[in-house]
Amino acid sequence: MSGPSTRRSFVALIASNVLGGVGVASGIAVGSLLVVSLSSVAFAGLGQALSVFGAGLMAVPLAGLAARRGRRPALALGYGVALLGAAVIILGAALGCLPVLFAGLLAFGAAQATNLQTRYAASELAGTERRGTWMSMVLWATTIGSVAGPNLSAAGGQLGSAVGLPALAGPYFFSLAAFAAAAAAVLLLLARRPAAAATQVTSAAPISALAALGWSARHPVARFAVALIVVAHAVMVGIMSMTPVHLGNGGHGLGVIGLVISLHILGMYALSPVFGALADRSGPMRTALVGLVTLGASAALAFLARDSLLAIIFALVLLGLGWSASIISGSVLLADVDSGAVRVPLQGATDALMSYGGGASAMTAGVLLAAIGYGGLALVAGALIIPAAALGWVANRSRRVPSRGASAGEPHVKS
C-alpha cells in the first residue's frame, strides 16, 4: 500500500465488510424460516429470492454511481438501503404481513450487492499483479461478520421475544446496527476517489450495462467470467437457502442451523486469500477450474447426504469453498478488462446477473425441495455447472490463439 489515503481506504473496506457480513448473515440464517412461519414451505425460497433480486436491482445503479462519483457514495447508499430493508422486515414480522415482509427482504438485498462491490473497490487500490490478493483480502474480512452473524440467531430470537416480536424477527436488529456502522465506516474513512482508481479511468465515456454484456458475449474470456460468477452464485444460493428449511424439517433447532450456515460462510470467505494468491500466481483460469470442481463435489455430497447432519455440513463447507474460488477468479478476469468504459459497467451488470441467477435459483429451490427433496434439489443445482464448464473450455482455447475479433482501440481482456 502507498500513502495514508490508500491505507485508510483499505481499512474502510475491511471494516465495512466485517460489519456488512454481520448484517447479512444475521438475517440470512432465519429469513427462509420467517417466511415459512407466515406462509408455507413452498414459499420458503421466495424470501431468499427477493433478497437476491434486491441485490441485482441495486448492482447496476451502484456501479453507475461509482463510475460517476466514486465508490464512497455508492457503498454508503447501498448500506443505507439495506438498513431500511431490515427495519421493514421487522415491521412486517410484527404485523404478520407477508407483503411488507417481502418488501423489506427486497431492500435488504442491497447489503449483498454493496459487500460484493467492495471487491472491485479493492482492485482499484491494488496494482495489476496483486488484484486477486487484494480482492480476496477484502472478501476474507467478511468471514468475521458472516460467521458471527448466524450464531447470533439464538440471541436475536431472545431479543425479539423480549420486545414482544416474533423470535425470528429478532436477528434483524443486529442487521440494523451493523449496516448503520458499515455506512459510517465508508463515509468516514474511504477516500472520495482513490488515487489508484483515478489512474485507471479512461477518456472514453462509460457504456450501458446492457452494452457491456453485449461486448462480453463477443469475447470468450469475459463471457466465461460472467457465466462463472452467475452459475457459481446460483448453485450456492439454491442449495444453501434450503438447507435451514431441510434441517428445520428434520427437527434441528436454530442453534444447529446457525452453526451449519456459519461453517458454510466460513468456507465462502476464510480461504479467499488462498484463492486470490492462486489467481495471481497460477492464473484465474486454473483457479476457476478449482472452483467448478469443488462446486460439483458439494452438489454430489448434498445429493447423497439425505438426513446426515455431518454430510450436510461437509457439503455446505465445500459449497462455500467452490463459490469463493469461482467468484474470485471470475472477478479477477473482469478486473482485467482494460477500458474503464467497459470495466465498471460490466462489473455492475455481472453482479446484477449474479443476483438474478441466485434469486431465480432460490425461488425455484423451495418448489424443488417440496417436490423432489433436498437431494433432488442438489442434483438440479449441480447440473448448472456443466454449461459454465463448457464456456470455460472455449475461453481457455481462445487464450492460446491470437484474437481476430478486436479492432484497434477496442477494450479487451488481458490474458
Automatic annotation (TrEMBL):
Pfam families: MFS_1. It is a multi-pass membrane protein. One of its GO terms (cellular component) is plasma membrane. The chain crosses the membrane at residues 12-35, 41-67, 74-95, 172-190, 221-242, 254-275, 287-305, 312-335, 371-394. InterPro entries: MFS, MFS_dom, MFS_trans_sf. Residues 1-400 form the Major facilitator superfamily (MFS) profile domain. It is found in: Cell membrane. It comes from the Bacteria. Keywords: Membrane, Transmembrane, Transmembrane helix. Its main location: membrane. This is MFS transporter.
